[in-house]
Amino acid sequence: MDDIKVVSFDVEGTLVTPDFSYAIWFESIPGCYAERNCIDFEQAKMIVEEEYRKVGDQRLEWYDINYWFNKLGLGVPDPVMERCQGRVCYYPEVRDVLLSLNGKYKLIVASGSPREFLRHLLRDIEPYFTKIFSSVSDYRQLKTTEFYLQMCQEMEVRPEQVLHVGDNWQFDFVAPREVGIHAFYLDRKKQSDYQNSLVSLKQLEAILPVSRIE
Fold this sequence. Notes:
Helix 1 (about 20-35) packs across helix 2. This protein is α/β, with parallel strands linked by helices. The chain starts with 5 loop residues before the first strand and ends in a 7-residue tail after the last helix. Helices cover about 45% and strands about 10% of the residues. The protein has 2 domains: about 5-15 and about 90-205, Rossmann fold; about 20-85. It contains 10 helices and 6 strands; from the N terminus they run βαααααβαβααβαββα.
């Protein structure tokens, strides 16, 4: 770990709780749909969730809020997202960890969330990050091995100089490790005993050497 220069974080489930996204996808969108179509909320929720299932989370459209607002005839998403801003909640250790690593490493975000979401999710902690990468907005792909290689190229570092942590086994652990990034799986529910799994971001402080950016 002595050669680590960049520490990369996933966002949802890693830095930020799911509350904001849940409010958008399962409360606000069904609510808007119910109002527009003069039906009750529960009926609207069933219809909207069925549309989500038809697309599935392996397609880019799944993550594209503009796609959904257009498809469902809801207008533009910005006012709805702004109304949900109060639902953004950071995990308890996040600010302390970012503060302790800031200045010692270049901190970046490597997220599968679109920038429309990241603007809200990172609003209060964005200054900690040197660069924010959105795989779906910047590269039109999920968090694949190609995404991580492109990220390293843009940061002008070798993969072995990057540590990434996130809560999705495939996108945040398997994919980055395949290109040589030091990846850690964040398992807040303690469902895994794998040696490279963490239950809190606080553990990064013990894993990373206390060294400053050259």
